[in-house]
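@channel sequence for tomorrow's demo:
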Amino acid sequence: MSLGLEAVKPAFGDDLADLIASEGNKPGTPHPHPLALRVIGLLTSVAAGELAGLPLEKGQGTADLSDCRTIDFDLDPKDEQPPRFRLAYRLLPNEERPTRVEAVAVGYRATLDAYVRAARNLGRR
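structure tokens (generated this afternoon):
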């Protein structure tokens, strides 16, 4: 299975840029930023059918995101600490017969940041 990739525009790109900035996009940081590479790698793995996030349910503390899935991650996949980041995506046109992966939001796990961003990006405040 190989699915197309797309993103909620411009919101997903803004989320990623915000996350990179808050993580300290210091001079000398390689371009593209390691955080961007990790997110793109995760989305590519989802599109290739190598990785599947957990389905979200209604009542996650934000708007209804039950058509989305989530992946918790960190820069180093081997890090034994709890992941700091969360990626929200959905399969379109639906879960049963997907043809593409839509990146919805990326943010911190703490304070449900990624879910709040996902709700906003999908117009579900």
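heads up for whoever presents: Strands lie at 4-7, 54-55, 69-73, 85-92, 100-108.
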